Amino acid sequence: MLEWLEISTELTVVATAKRAFLHVPSGFGVDPFHSPMSGPGTPETTHWLLEGAVIAAARSFAAGPSEKRGSNFTGSGNASAHWAYRLAGYFHSTDATRRLLPLVAERFTRAGRHALARWAERKLVEEAGHEQLALRDLEELGYRGRALVAALVPVRARAWVGLFEQLVGAADPVSCVGYAHGLERLALLRGPAEVRAIERTLPPHVNATRCLRVHSSLGSDFDHVRSNELTAAALSASERRAIARACYRTARIYFDPAFDEDFDPELATRVQAFASQPPPATQPQPELN
């Protein structure tokens, strides 16, 4: 059994039960993936369809996740402010879940789409209070969290929230499953090494990585990703295509360097304007073996 998604007229993601690959139409002869897929999915093929959507998004750009500027902390004097800015992005993406998922659940319930309504309600429970983690981390760093996130919206977070709002307001909100899956699958690219790298740049005894830990491979997103895949696999072919396409669009925002921001002195000053107290001096932390 195969599943596939036409990314464009020149590229199709094809999923088998064991892998995904990118298919480029030859331009002559019969293309077996010319028509939209039909028929049922399976947990295995839907898993690889969604994996393929993320891979296709990554390959659209030269930079992979290890090269993204936002992941690299150098221990400079602005490290706390830089991390506070990234936490503002976490706040806005998680707060959008708090605001918008109840609308999605309500729409699925009204339409009698009970499996999708249960998915949305379960997701609400899983994500409950996550926006508060970002605020707690900001306060731990010595910032007025509410004021900071009200004033500053990192461009990548703004793009994600805008996409989510668009999908929620669409004629069929099933694509929201793909958006949520994309964010949770991308979170698994964040691991212990990145958490340690950030913590080494922050003042000692400051616990300001709660939100990152939850939204990384250290959290529960492995289980969430699998739950998303099982939900999608049970849906119709058109619904699975919509979910995979939304996953692709979500991942493109992650990999697109147009959404990278240089954390320059001007931006650092804007962040530091929301400091509630002078932050403790940052000292290099020894790396634990």
Explain this structure.
There is one protein chain. The chain has 289 residues and is mainly alpha-helical. It has one domain: Heme Oxygenase, Chain A (Up-down Bundle). It has twelve helices and three strands, in the order βββαααααααααααα. The protein has a three-stranded antiparallel sheet, with helices on one face. Helix 2 runs parallel beside helix 6. The longest helix has 32 residues. The termini are far apart. 42% of the residues are buried.
Q: What are the secondary-structure elements, in order, as H or E?
A: EEEHHHHHHHHHHHH
**CATH structural class:** Mainly Alpha
Q: Looking at this structure, what is the CATH superfamily?
A: Heme oxygenase-like
Name the average pLDDT. 90
SSE inventory with pairings:
Layout: E1 3-8, E2 11-15, E3 20-23, H1 43-59, H2 79-110, H3 114-127, H4 130-141, H5 145-151, H6 155-168, H7 175-187, H8 192-201, H9 210-214, H10 221-233, H11 237-255, H12 265-272
Antiparallel strand pairs: 1-2, 2-3
Helix pairs in contact: 1-10, 1-11, 2-3, 2-4, 2-6, 2-12, 3-10, 6-11, 7-10, 7-11
Keywords summarizing the entry:
289 residues; mainly alpha; globular
Brief sketch in words of this structure:
With 289 residues, this protein is mainly α. It is built from 12 helices and 3 strands, in the order βββαααααααααααα.
